[in-house]
Design a protein that fits this description.
Layout: E1 4-7, H1 11-23, E2 27-33, H2 40-44, E3 47-52, H3 63-72, E4 77-79, H4 89-97, E5 101-102, H5 107-114, H6 116-126, H7 141-151, E6 155-163, E7 166-171, H8 177-192, E8 197-201, E9 207-215, E10 221-233, E11 236-242, H9 249-265, E12 270-278, E13 284-290, H10 297-304, H11 308-316, E14 331-338, E15 340-341, E16 347-348, E17 351-352, E18 355-357, E19 364-368, E20 375-376, E21 383-391, H12 394-407, E22 409-411, H13 417-423, H14 427-430, H15 438-441
Parallel strand pairs: 1-2, 1-4, 2-3, 4-5
Antiparallel strand pairs: 6-7, 6-8, 9-10, 9-12, 10-11, 11-14, 12-13, 14-21, 15-16, 17-20, 18-22, 19-21
Helix pairs in contact: 4-5
């Protein structure tokens, strides 16, 4: 087992890993930028090393600084969390070259699944259902236009290196395709330095349902059931739940088997997520694979009583998995609390938190790194907390969430708490009747002055 793990991340996920390390008797090392000196992950780790200035490009993305921090603290493993370097093949490779265990996917796996075109081809060969579309990268707009005509509109134009909704455009008619194609390529080039594109049939009324998997060094994998992540804004998830209100036993079995097949086909090691689009007829199609822990992993942990971070560490240390597939026995909902103003187009709102009161009670979990007096820096993602409620039924979990949101008091900055409160009263959401297009028609009711 590892003696000391360095967490190459910040915020709530860094604190989450530190807690599991402590429970396992493993020393932890926090790294931090100058902007995060007062963050809780720095205070709770056994050791902490400053790795650079506020800009992530000079700190959390600076591989040489992180490797140096691992070496001076004699860390024998690095946990990357999510975001930053979690799915960076070069960083995984460098860790291996320095004989530091990367608690995540190998460089080969990240390269294979990180490029959407190669991931699609790999899944096709493995027999996993894929969305009809181009075979690999499209060389020209003329080729894309021809494929779109053959498949029929609407189609989705996608950058192979895309993520977070960047480099993606939905095209509903031929006349607008050239403009959208050029815009997607330009955005992909600016965001990822790669403007390679492919094209897929656009799935109408889709749900975004992902399957949590874990694989070990023997090449065996298992699944831990699904999460419904369809409530999104500009391809960014806002809330998630498990089990999905759209799921059936038969569909869960099929999707679980497909996710395990996808994982075992590349001998995937560690925790990962196989993401699918599911149409209104419950046909499902492989979308992508995330070779890391997900932001929304706590709801899976809650419904099957399972520590995914602990499992990641065990697998990285060479401990084989049980091979058991899991079915949720409870219902869990997660709301991402962001420092954003939902009444003003979700504009980020960094600043000082003057009051912070977290909710509690049975079935309420909060993962956060903030506190009274904490200053939210403007340099990073705006998520400051994850509020998770768990109960016997979906209705009970939602009612518990309503109560917890009412108790959750954050002053000094705007947050998305009011959005989640309105979502929890929305008739379509309450009925489980939503798709990835839900937010296109959702309108915030006016803010009521206290």
């Amino acid at each position: 087992m590892f003696k000391k793990i360095l967490i190459a991340n910040r915020g709530e996920i860094a604190l989450r890993v530190i807690r599991t390390c402590r429970e396992m008797g493993i020393k932890s090392v926090a790294v931090y930028s100058t902007a995060d000196k007062e963050s809780l992950h720095v205070k709770f780790a056994d050791e902490a090393v400053c790795i650079g200035p506020a800009a992530s490009s000079e700190s959390y993305l600076k591989m040489a600084n992180i490797i140096a921090a691992a070496e001076i603290t004699n860390s024998d493993a690095i946990h990357p969390g999510y975001g930053f370097l979690a799915e960076n093949a070069q960083f995984s490779k460098i860790c291996k070259e320095h004989k530091i265990k990367f608690i995540g996917a190998t460089a080969e796996m990240i390269n294979l699944m990180g490029d959407k075109a190669s991931a699609r081809e790999t899944m096709k060969k493995a027999g996993v259902p894929i969305i009809p579309g181009s075979d690999g990268i499209i060389e020209s707009f003329e080729e894309a236009e021809k494929l779109a005509d053959e498949m029929g509109f609407p189609v989705m134009l996608k950058a192979t290196a895309g993520g977070g909704g960047k480099g993606m455009r939905a095209c509903w008619k031929k006349e607008e395709m050239k403009e959208l194609w050029d815009a997607a390529r330009q955005e992909a080039k600016a965001s990822f330095g790669n403007d390679d594109m492919y094209i897929e049939k656009l799935i109408e009324e889709p749900r975004h349902i992902e399957i949590q998997i874990v694989g070990d060094s023997t090449g065996r994998a298992c699944h831990l059931s699904e999460r419904d992540c369809s409530i999104q804004r500009r391809h960014q998830k806002l809330t998630e739940e498990t089990p999905s209100p759209f799921m059936t036993k038969a569909l869960r079995k099929k999707m679980g088997e497909a996710a395990v097949l996808a994982s075992e086909s590349i001998k995937y090691e560690g925790a990962g997520t196989v993401e699918f689009l599911v149409d209104k007829h419950r046909n499902f199609y492989f979308m992508e694979m995330n070779t890391r822990i997900q932001v929304e992993h706590p709801i899976t942990e809650q419904v099957i009583d399972f520590d995914l971070i602990r499992e990641q560490i065990l697998v990285a240390a060479g401990v084989p998995i049980s091979g058991k597939n899991y079915t949720p026995k409870l219902h869990s909902v997660e709301c991402r609390i962001n420092a954003e103003d939902p009444f003003n187009d979700f504009r980020p709102c960094p600043g000082k938190i003057t009051t912070f009161h977290a909710p509690g009670g049975h079935g309420v979990r909060i993962d956060t790194h903030v506190y009274d007096g904490y200053v939210i820096p403007p340099y990073y993602d705006s998520m400051i907390a994850k509020l998770i409620t768990t109960a016997q039924t979906r209705e009970e979990a939602i009612n518990k969430m309503k109560r917890a949101l009412q108790e959750f008091i954050i002053e000094g900055v705007k947050t998305t708490i009011p959005f989640h409160q309105q979502l929890m009263e929305n008739p379509d959401y309450l009925a489980g009747n939503y798709t990835t297009k839900f937010m296109e028609d959702f309108e915030m009711k006016p803010e009521v002055e206290a």
